[in-house]
Structures are given as C-alpha cells and as structure tokens.
Design brief:
Aminopeptidase; Alpha-Beta Plaits; 2 domains; eight-stranded mixed beta sheet; four-stranded antiparallel beta sheet; 16 strands
C-alpha cells in the first residue's frame, strides 16, 4: 500500500493543521489549545469515544473497527508539546509566542495522527479498536508516564503501542527502526564539592573546590572510557559548573551537573555505581569532600523484536523496502514513549525529515512533504495489525 489517494487528498488540510499548531506552540502539560483542537477534531471525525484529562492534558480517541472479533486494541501515540526556545525560521507560520517553539516536530506528529484518525474513522477497515493517543509533556515532563499512571493501559486494554518521530538527516519519507534500545535512558547527576575558601592571593591556605571540579570533570570521562565495555554505548557529559562570587576570593564550594545516556540497563547501573564510588574518593585526594546525587530520567526506549519486524514490514509496504533501514543506528536522545513500551510490547520508528535543521535548534521545521507518508504508515499499521477476516 503506497500513499493512498484519499490520504493524499488530506495533505493540504493536514498541513494547515500542522502549521497552525506550529504558530501556537505550548510547552509541557500546558497544551490546552492544542488538546482542545485535537478533541474537537476527533469528535468531528466520529470517534466512538474521546477521553480527556489523562496525564493532566492528554487525549485518547477510540475508533471501533468494522468488527471486533479480535478483541484487541492497538495504541498509536503522538506528542503535542513544544520547547521553551525562540524560533528563528522566518516562516510565515512561525511561532507567535515568544520563547516557545515547535523545534522537535511534535506539531507534525500530532497532525499526522489526526489525519490517520480521520481516515480510520471513515473506513474502519480493521477488526478491533484503535486508540489514538495524544500526549503532553514529552520534552522533560514525563507526560507518557503520567498517562500510564492515570490508567492508559487498563482503561482501554491496550495490547501494543506504536510511536513515530521525524528524523532530520534521514532522506525525506524514508524510515529507520531497530529492535532493542533505539533511544537512550536520560539520567542526571548532581555533584556538590566542599573545600576551604580564602583569599585568592593565598591559595596555600585553602582547599580550592574549583581546582577539584576542574580535575574531576576530566577524570569523570574515565568512567565511560575505562569501565564501560567498548562494544556498548554510553555518554557522560558535564553541562553545568557553578562556583565563586568574586575574582579575588577562592570559593568554599563548587557544583557540577551533567547527564548520562545509556542504551542498556546494566551499563546504566554500572555508571551510577561508579559515580557514587569515584566522586567522594577523588575529592578526598585533594582534601575536599564531595557528594553525588544520581537522578534517573526516562528509561531506555526498547523496541520489541516482533513488533519491530512488523513495523518495518508495514513501512516497506508504504515506501518500498529499499527505503526502510531495519537496523538503524540508535540515538542517545531520550523519549518518554519508553514508559509505554515498559507496559506493553511495541515499536518506535523514525521517519526521515530530509536535510533539515537539527531537532531542538532555532531554525528547525517539520517537513510537510512527508505528511502523507506518515499518515499512510499509521493507517496501514492499524489495518495490518487488526486485519478484517
């Protein structure tokens, strides 16, 4: 099934939805306008049930198939939120809200799933139920986890979850997917160093926490380079260093903040353990004290083997198997669709955005030309996952 003529007919309409979402970005859980439009459209499409308020501002539309002998419900998920950053694309539909921007393509994800909902509600050429899931607060708020806590799986008896994300640098309309970890766990660490402050002209009377911090930042890299198996992936990045108030005073304290990205829970455990051992001992060698707090964020996004193979096959039916990379490189970025995949099997796939600006940059924009491909993928996946006898 290549792109269907009926879906191609929706292209201009869906593009208008997408560009309207883009012009009115909302962040975290504060997606009332976006969710309101989603709710109105799902009801207008004739969804059999529209449930609001899951995960605070999440929306779920239920579409019953022509028959329901299978008794199965498949969940298709899109994220709705934008990022707290200023847009500099110069597009006619650029953000109208200062300091907020759709810099990750969630506007496109939402619009494509709405397009699929419209088609599926019209045709109902499947046996079972489709749950179209519109999630808030993917960008750091854990909206997926909140929807799970509010009973997403149990309320709708969802058997499998599928997600999709646009991917700059991948040819437009191509797909990439892999079994196992496809997006990384996103953890943070917070290190507090305490020394002895004093006059900058008399460093011999102090225990300089800034010196300790500077040496520690370099030494922290050995946790990955000399503890993690080179065949496994891990990233440890220091992103914030804070110390001092005056140029003639050696501070008493310093702090280091950073992130750890892993694709394997055993590697994640190892790095957390080694940080806990290393930080206080390293500081002690300078006569200082240090503590570390390790905060786990989104877990690894793990694609189930069976569902990954199925999703790749579906994508190949839409664009041709030569345009599907079934062993795509994973990303060290994070994704809270991971919480849904912890509850039920499923698969997360990348859809090529072409040679666009990178995600989370001020000049990024979703490629509207891939909309029919994304909608067709959702439709074909629904019809193939729940075939009519």
């Amino acid at each position: 099934m290549p792109v269907l003529n009926r879906i191609a007919e929706f292209h201009e309409e869906i593009t208008a939805w997408r560009q309207d979402f883009h012009a009115h970005p909302e962040v975290l859980f504060d997606v009332e306008r976006t969710a309101g439009i989603v709710i109105d459209k799902l009801r207008a499409f004739g969804c059999d049930e529209v449930v609001t308020g899951l995960g605070r501002t999440g929306v779920v539309g239920i579409i019953n198939g022509r028959t329901n002998t299978s008794g199965r419900t498949i969940g298709l998920r899109a994220d709705m939120d934008a990022l707290p950053m200023t847009e500099r694309t110069g597009k006619a539909y650029a953000s109208t809200i200062d300091g907020k921007m759709h810099a990750c393509g969630h506007d496109g994800h939402t619009a494509m799933l709405l397009g699929a909902a419209k088609y599926l509600a019209e045709t109902r050429n499947f046996d079972g139920r489709i749950a179209v899931i519109f999630q808030p607060a993917e960008e750091g708020g854990g909206g997926g986890k909140e929807m799970i806590k509010d009973g997403l799986v149990e309320k709708f008896d969802i058997a499998e979850f599928y997600g999709l994300h646009n991917w700059p640098g991948m040819p437009a309309g191509h797909f990439g997917i892999r079994a196992g970890g496809i997006m990384a766990a996103t953890d943070r660490f917070y290190i507090d160093i305490s020394g002895r402050g004093g006059h900058a002209a008399r460093p011999q009377t102090t225990i300089d926490p800034i010196l300790v911090a500077a040496q520690m930042i370099v030494a922290l890299q050995s946790i990955v380079s000399r503890n993690v198996d080179p065949l496994h992936s891990a990233v440890l990045s220091v992103t914030i260093v804070e110390a001092g108030e005056a140029d003639n005073v050696i501070s008493k304290t310093a702090s280091i903040t950073g992130t750890v990205r892993t694709l394997d829970s055993a590697v994640q455990d190892l790095i957390e353990e080694r940080l806990g051992q290393f930080v206080p001992q390293f500081a002690q060698s300078f006569g200082a004290e240090a503590s570390v707090r390790y905060a786990r964020g989104y877990p690894v996004t793990v694609n189930s083997a069976e569902q990954t193979s199925f999703a790749a096959e579906v994508a190949g039916e839409v664009v041709g198997p030569e345009r599907v990379d079934a062993d795509a490189e994973p990303s060290m970025g994070g994704e809270d669709f991971s919480f849904m995949l912890q509850e039920r099997p499923g698969a997360y796939i990348f859809l090529g955005n072409g040679e666009s600006a990178e995600l989370h940059t001020e000049t990024y924009d979703f490629n509207d030309e891939v909309i029919p491909v994304g909608v067709s993928y959702w439709v074909r996946l629904a019809e193939r996952a729940l075939p009519v006898s």
